[in-house]
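note to self: the first set is below, dont mix up w the second
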Amino acid sequence: MRIEHVGRLLRTLSHLRADQVWHRVRLSLRRKHWSRRAAAIDARYRARAAQAGALRWDDAGLAAFARLRAEGRDPERAVAVARDALAGRFTLLGETRALGTPVPWDRPDLMQALLWKTHLHEMAWAVDLAIAHRATGDAAYRDGFFALARAWHDAEPIGQPGFSRVAWNERVVATRLVHWSAAGALLGLRAGEPDADWLGREIVRHALFLRDNLALDLLANHLFRDCVALVFADALSGAVPDAAALLEREVGEQILADGAHVERCPMYHAVCVADLVDLRALLGDAAPAWLREALARAAGFLEAILLGDGDIPLLGDGWRGEVDVPRLLAQARALESPRAPAATHAASGL
């Protein structure tokens, strides 16, 4: 480390809790250890996933969630994205890269566009492939999804050098888990089909890995997304029995009394509302009262801070386009009645 970086490091540490520093050290040491035992670590997670219960592809809540995802996507746009994905071409964050086939998931220059690479590995485009298959009936989109997912799987074992930077970054894992679940549901997968059983095991493997590698060093929206994904996976497989308790704790800490998200960043707030909407759709009438209450308050706060054009103010670390806010609020209203922030609440200071 350069001497000029020491001051920055010390200033950063001064804002962290002791347990965050501990978890950063713990996770860093674990990753180094795992990189020396990659084959054994990867095999262990495969074995654990194989022993877990099968994913319930016929779950009514999963179907409801998948419909929600499909309703938010224009079929023609989905077909265009899917066609590009089959050719190894991806447009993410407004930038198109033609990676070719097979997709070089870890091409060195992609580390110069780390957020773009992160979105590539999160695989939101998997949902577009599934929607394209439904819209056109063309099996090439279904086959293409599984070809890309299996190619990624073969190229990205847990524990290989750099595995936690992008491919097995906990937030990427949590996000990909949900996208793959939506894609599988939209493809109409059912237990007993080879592709369905393989994808189900992969989703469970993601959940088991995620439970062991929560963002306890970063906290905030990262840990929120992690816990949402764990509840999602547990609802479909029973693989993470403490998932609901973990998320309830995070909701209690991160959704403030007036409905604001603890980071006071409108984009992060909208992302967390989207996570709650997804989970509320999945759980249906089984959604616990604390989740429904949090969604009502958070959606109400989001509605209250929108600008005249109906989009979020650009405060803090954020940009527009990450979330379709009008559509998100329409989905939230269909599930819970948004509750406007009470005048007596000033928990967020906003």
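second set (the one i keep forgetting abt)
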Amino acid sequence: MCEICNEEEESGIHAIFHCRLAKEIWASSDFSELLTTAPMTSCADCFGWILPRLNAETQGNFLAIAWALWTIRNSHIFDESPSLPSLVLSGFINYVADYKEYAERVFWGPSRESNICRDTWVRPQAGIIKINTDAAIFEDDEIGLGFVCRDENGRVVRVGSKRVKAR
């Protein structure tokens, strides 16, 4: 039995879409109308039907709500003092927005091209050791890892490398 509403047997589809709490949250979301026509036989059917109808940003918000609902469910079952649903939900929505902003800066930002690889080594401030790392994947299922530590004058302080079997 669902530990939140005590109205139906617990399942993934119930926790994310059918539970009274889930219905309240979805009803106040931008997805309420879309959910009225979505197949609700399983999470896979519902997600498979809804996600192609959304753009990338709204997909992130939809998945954040579903993720928050699952987290709320887990909190009710496993935590002695369950989290407030509104706080969990807003936290997940903010998390997606923060990640989107981060991804735009790191992966698609205007400075991306210039930061891929520097032509020359840039010395650190005095008293700081700079660590440069590298890794490689070999055809024989091995990985090579390496590092070089240099001081502010460019002197090598420590160096290391290792070849390990990939799992």
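remember for set 2: Residues 138 and 144 are 8 Å apart (CA to CA).
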